[in-house]
Amino acid sequence: RNTRRTIECRKDIDRLDAPFLAIYESLIPAEEEKAKQKQLLTLLEKLVCKHWPKAKLYLYGSCGNSFGVLKSDIDVCLAIDDPYLNKVVMLVKLAEILKSSNLQDVQALTRARVPIVKLMDPVTGISCDICVNNVLAVVNTKLLRDYAEIDGRLRQLAFLVKHWAKSRGVNETYQGTLSSYAYVLMCIHFLQLRNPPILPCLQRMKATYAVTVDNIECAFFDEVEKLRDFGARNNENISKLLWGFFHYWAYCHDYPNHVISVRHGYILRKQEKDWTRRVGNDRHLICIEDPFETSHDLGRVVDKRSIKVLREEFERAAEILQNDPNPCVTLFEPY
Ligand code: CTP
Ligand code: MG
Fold it and tell me: Which of 94, 130, 240, 249 has the least CB density, counted as fewest CB within 10 Å?
């Protein structure tokens, strides 16, 4: 295998910038779609607050973190401060309330890893998952959104990587490949490591935002409007970065030894995390540390078979970006 191979980027990489940007732009959701999401959220707030006046609804996931491509479903977290609360009982009750309104396909999935109620709103055509008190997801959504505000190249890169992952069938956690959340963290980390860096490490700066959730202290610098020119000394454009991203994951990442960590802004060793061997179902074949739940490896879904699929896809993408005459098409060809 060609690990740690560094090759020079193709000479005509800049020529690819405009077509990749055009694809990025075609993926941005229209304002109209966002308005519909708001409309559904407002409706849900009304229904929920009738029964639980102290409850609050938060958007999380791609509709709240600014990495949502068009036609995304929305993820909603119902937060309620009640130590006696039983999530399952609450979700069953919630499903009952929603069923008696105008919503369709209401279903309580109480046995999932994260129990949720699913529904579809026939007025806006939007589907939605509601979970209870998954506040950590709301906070990590804010972290991702704040990173996106610092440099526009993060959003461009993450959209193209997500689009590639969906086209190539490697964005399926139940099949052992990675979540969109994991891919966005990989993009952030990649931009933290550019030279000069394009993104800072917000968790290593003076905290201007701090909350404690499930006994985890989440603190970071969130005055991101002050960081707008952080990456200005680096003038790499999107095609070069996309090339670099796949080149890194195809040939440079040290899979047996390294853990990527957005929280530190640099690479950790597996020994430091005690992620060197298989524990239960966690194999740690590709290691991506969650920024807050630091014992959580987002690569834990990856198994012996799917690591091979993933690495072959990274290599395919790197190869296309290096040599293909028309990478803007070939890269996203369905598998
Ligand atoms: N999440 C998490 N831990 C995970 C996976 C997801 O905390 N292991 C939370 C994150 O807050 C993430 C949200 O769940 O933003 C939704 O995850 P995912 O569906 O992977 O990302 P989306 O951004 O919603 O992507 P998509 O557009 O593919 O729906
Ligand atoms: Mg989602």
Answer: 240
Q: Can you give the residue ranges of every domain in the chain?
A: 13-27+150-330, 31-136
Name the one residue in this structure whose structure tokens are 């969906």. Answer: 166
299 pocket-lining for ligand 1 (C-beta < 6 Å): no
The pLDDT tens digits for 84-118 are: 889 999 999 999 999 999 899 999 999 988 899 99
Which atom, in ligand 1's list, is nearest to the CA of 63? 24
pLDDT at position 219: 98
State the pLDDT at residue 270: 97
224 CA → ligand 1 middle, Å: 22
Kindly report the CATH class assigned to 31-136: alpha beta
Report the CATH number of the 13-27+150-330 domain: 1.10.1410.10
Of all ligands present, the nearest one to the C-alpha of 65 is 1
Residues whose CB falls within 8 Å of the CB of residue 199, separated by 6 or more in sequence, listed in order: 147, 150, 151, 154, 188, 191, 192, 230, 231
pLDDT of residue 80: 94
In ligand 1, which atom is closest to the CA atom of 137?
Answer: 11
Distance, CA of 241 to CA of 247 (rounded, Å): 9
Which residues does the chain have with pLDDT short of 70? Answer: 1-4
Give the separation between CA 144 and CA 146, rounded to whole angstroms: 5
60 ligand 1 Cβ < 6 A: yes
Cβ atoms of residues 106 and 95 within 8 Å:
yes
239 lines ligand 1 (CB under 6 A): no
pLDDT of residue 273: 96
pLDDT for the residue 331: 98
